[in-house]
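Re: the multi-chain job from yesterday

Posting the exact lines I submitted so nobody has to dig through the queue logs.
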Amino acid sequence: MKYVHKCARLHRREGRNGRPGVDGTPHAILFMTTLISATVLVTVAAFLILGSLQAFSTIGLMEMLGGTLWSPTSYGDQAFGLLPLMAGTFLVSLLASLIAIPIGLGCTIYLAEIAHPKVRLVMKPAIELLAGIPSVVYGLFAMLILQRWVAQVFDLPTGYVALNGGVILAIMMIPIMVSLAEDAISAVPKELREASYALGATRWETMRSVILPASMSGIAAAIILSIMRAVGETMAVLMAFNQMPLLTLDPFSGVQTMTATIAIEMGEAAAGGLHHSALFAVGVVLFIITLAMNSIANWIMGRYSEAYG
Amino acid sequence: MSIFSRNARERIYFTMFRLCGGLVVLTLLMIVSYMIAGSLPVLDLSFLTEPPRGANTRGGILTPMIGTIHLMAIVFVFAVPVGVLTSVYLSEYQRKGWTSWFWNMIISNLAGVPSIVYGLLGLALFVGFIGLGRSLLASGLTLGILALPIVISASREAIAAVPRSVREASIALGATKWQTIWHHVLPYALPGILTGVILAMSRAAGETAPILLTGAAFYMSSMPDSLFSQFMALPYHIYAVATQTMAGMNGSPMVYGSALVLLALVIGMNLFAIIVRKRYQERYRW
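And the result, structure tokens for all chains:
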């Protein structure tokens, strides 16, 4: 690359057919568009923080993050504690992870190691398609069909409970986890596998003691990224259970996630008001959580590409 | 020692993994077949060509479909040129160093930001600050920003896959850098870029949360007449009918039908992207 850059720079300086700076204009235009996308992308953070300033300064950062009551509409006695919302997001993501991680990993191993190449050829794109289904369709499925099953299996009066959200989020997490983790397993060099077979290990022993440890960081990153999808999901959660900002970890109760809070309450919050600003504060917290998870995944992934780059 | 022999243990584990794989495929089939079965009563051409009537309880889904097509057009016009040009700059002109590290970080992080947060951004920036109001343009631009990281990372990957020898040959023959990019790098990278663009558009078509905050309407009797009017869109239509009408809550064919059409649209675009990518992998093997 360096060589090409050098050539191009030399060329630019001397000009072509005596016309100096032939290449200057595209460079400038490209730089401008990059600047546009940079501005646009940095704006996300700036506008979120601007919007939330009022809430953070009026209510106080600690009172918001540590507050145990979210009751934005009651007059005189408004409370903007984020803990119930964070607990809601935590509960449904936890339930989803408990279901999705074992099934997702099993499916990954099947796809990477056991499936016949022809099955694999069809199944890999099918799982990508599953990842592309819009969340509102998953939400509809949870609301109309899954909910009845949950109510029946656990003998509940209504299926609109946190567990229903956990199940539908698990269904949404699995395809992402599988396609990322499968990439990690396929990236393990062939030599490791062959060495293990040569020592007399069975396919499962090779899998468990050689392939999985070698691709562990890629699999860990896949799991984190899929949990991130569950944390950030709005529509499926919104439609899967009754939204109630309770501070509870009971899977058979309604809860309210951070994402759903923004979606439901933004319509009723007057622009410029405290509630409006508090919802932006919820957005800031959500933004920071996903940023942190993404950075962790990237860091793990970076270490892994160093190992077998 | 375990009571099972090594081979028996392998068989037990592998059966478990097979079941997991089967379960995932079964889920996909189940969701699609429930959508098809639920929508059978309304499944004909008039469902696509008639606007909704009677507060979304009768008629078709023409108005929401037109809205979704408008949104996709705005996303295309905004996100594709900006995204592709940015990725050309980043992969061909940007030198290695802390700035390129900075770009990588921004793009990878923004791809993971929840869509509702993009909705908040659109509400603050386009609806409020720029003053577009709750409108087609505000929603389209919000979705455009959401699609931008997807377009950029796919295009960068496609451009990076073009071997250096192609660039060096072109430069050795006296082409300028831009001529090299335009005539040699971009044509080879085009299928990869196209795949990314289609995936980004399908993502934008299926997103509900951002347009919920920036301008989608529950019901409109007419088509949007300008970029500044409110609009109906397919994903929001599904949510609205399912949660705010009695029939929808009980699973009317109207709501299943809308979901099936959206599913067909998105899966169709994704399939197309997969086919383009596969063709391209077969054609250029460096």
